[in-house]
Design a protein that fits this description.
This protein has one domain (9-200): Gcn5-related N-acetyltransferase (GNAT) (Aminopeptidase, 3-Layer(aba) Sandwich). Strand 5 (99-106), helix 4 (115-129) and strand 6 form a beta-alpha-beta unit. By secondary structure, it is α+β, with helices and mostly antiparallel strands. The longest helix has 15 residues, at 115-129. The chain has helices spanning 24-33, 35-38, 56-69, 115-129, 145-154, 189-200, and strands at 9-11, 14-18, 73-79, 82-93, 99-106, 135-140, 157-168, 171-181.
Amino acid sequence: MVTGWPVRLEDGDVRLRPLGGRDQGTWLALRAANAGWLDPWDASSPVPVVGPRPSFRQYVRALRSQAREGTALPFALDFQGELVGQLTVSGITYGSFRSGTIGYWVSEHVAGRGIVPTAVALAVDHSFFRLGLHRIEVNIRPENAPSLRVVAKLGFRDEGVRERYLHIAGEWCDHRSFALTTEDVPGGLLARWHRVQQESGRPEAAEE
């Protein structure tokens, strides 16, 4: 098993790096400013949460622990040197499965610039070619059109609906499951994404 954390991945103006304590002010401001944009898709707890919510620093420490254990890659997402979102490869499993799941969010003010597809492609290539995973999946609510465009642009395979898959906003919600395996992108997903951008004639091939 290769953990190799901390990890920094970059392509043009898009960078993935570990989230740190110094990100607290920007992160909190982004989440507050994007509440209406993000709340419909954020996971919630199906049971009452007792006690105070973890502080930002406690949250970062928990992410670092997962990264050191090799079960997750919890990235901050930067665009042009500024924090604009997050991307996490979670549920990393080795053995005969060798799989992980990608989740992400990005601030509405930079949506539509190709940031998320680039970040996903960076994370997939790292997972496949550095960590040795075989499969990456993304699970998206059917109503989340911007995220559906991300996986469409990147050529993820639609594997159907998972009923009542995740608890969101107080209810169990269906998700569509999309996946790639190493056989799908022998030359790397980032290279394929660059070709899509070139063929579209637009550097961003807007994702959302």
